[in-house]
User: What shape does this take?
Amino acid sequence: MTEKILIIEDDEAMQFFLSEALKKQGYRVIPFLDAESAFIWLEKERCDLILLDIKLPGIDGIEAIGPIRERSDAIIIVITAFGAEKHALEAIRKGAYDYFTKPFKLEEMEITIKRALEKHRLRRELEALKQRARESMLFPNIIGQSRAIKEVLSQVARVADSDVTALILGETGTGKELIAQTIHDHSPRKGKPFIKLNCVAIPEGLLESELFGHEKGAFTGAVSRKIGKFELADQGTIFLDEIGDMALSTQAKILRILQEKELERVGGTLPMKVDVRVIAATNKNLVSEVREKRFREDLFYRLNVVTIFLPPLRERKEDIPLLVDHIMEKMSKASGKKIYQISKSAMEILTEYSWPGNVRELENVVERAMVMVEEDTTVITPSHLPLHLRGLPEEIIFEFPKESASLDDAVSAFEKELILKALYKTKGVQSQAAQLLGITERSMWHRIKKYAIDIDRIKGLQDL
Assistant: This one.
C-alpha cells in the first residue's frame, strides 16, 4: 500500500519541491499551507508521516504538534530555518520524530523519511499484535505472549476449573497474587469471598488470631470475639502469600484445615466446619525448607497438589513491551493523563534491564516515568527513567567552580562533565552515549562540537 505523507508548509515553492521529490519516490502526497486545514483533513483521514514547517501562519508548527497527535498516530518530522534548532528540539520533546534544517540535502531527507516510515509500520504492526493478543487471551489481566507465560495461562485454565489446592512459586514481584485472584475469578467459587493474607506482614504472635479468629478473653487485649480469615473465606478462596515464612505451629493448624475441613478459634474449644479453597504462594524453595526442617513435609505435599511456577521477568523479556503498554494504559485511565508512546531508546533500556523486582518493579518504573513526563510532552524518553537503568550512578557529584562563575557557565560545565562520563562509559560511541543521556544523536554531535571534545582521544584511551 502506498504511504501517505502530509506536507504542512506555507512556502509554496518549498511545498512544490518537496511534493515532487516525494512523488518520485512513490509516495502519495497531500499538501497544506496551514495547520488548521490539516487538522480538518486529519479528523476523517489517516496518513503515515507529516512534514511540518515550524513557521506557519496562524498556529505555528510547535503549537500544531499537540492537536496533530490528538488526531493521528503519524510520524512527525519538522522543518526549521537555519539557526532555529532550539525550536526543533522543543518539537522533538513534544513528540516529533526528527527535524531538518533549511537548506537540507534531498538524499538525507529521503533516507530519514524511509526510516521513519519503517518505524511507523513496525509500530502499527505491534499495535495490531497487542490487540490480537488482548482479544485472544482468556485472562486479559495476565499480560504476555512469551512461551513461559502461555504455559502459566494453560495451567491457570486447568486449575481454575477444579477445586484443588494450588501452590504458586515465583520471585517477589512476579504476580503471584494476580494469578491466585484469576484462578478464583474463573473457578466455581467465583462470586464468593476471595480473602488474602500475607503471612510475613502479620507478627507471628498475631498470625493465628488473624487466620482462625479468637474468642473473647483468649489473650490479653482480646476484648471481643474476632472472626478469622478462614471463616470470612467460607465457600470461597483464601490466598496465603509467603507461606514459606509461616511458623511450624501455625503450619500444623493449616494442615488440619486441609485434612479435616475444620478449625478452632484461638481460645475456643469447639471445632467449626469451613469450606475453603486454599491457594498458597512463596518465593522460597520449599523442598529445601522441608529438608532443613523449617517447613512441614506433610503440609508441603498437601499444598503441592498443583504447582504453578511464575518465571521472572528477565526470562520473558519479549513480554516487556506489552506490559509497558498495559501499565501506561492503566495509569492513563486512572490519572486522566494520556501518554501516547514510549521512545525506542527508552524501550530498549527497559528490555535490557534485568528487573530483580520483576513486574512490580517495572510497574513502579513506568509509573514514575509517566509522572516525570512534562505536561506538554507525549513521549517517555530515557531521561524519564531512573539513572541506574541507564547505567549511570544514582548520584552524580558536581564540584562547583572555585572561582565565581555565572549560572550558564556552571550549567555548561556540568553538561560537559555528563557528556564526558557518558562517552567514556560507551567507549566513545556517540549513539550509545546519547541513549544513556536521553538525547538524540544530533544533539550529542552538536554538544561534542560545542565543548570541543576529542572523540578520537577518548577512543584511544579505551584501547590502552
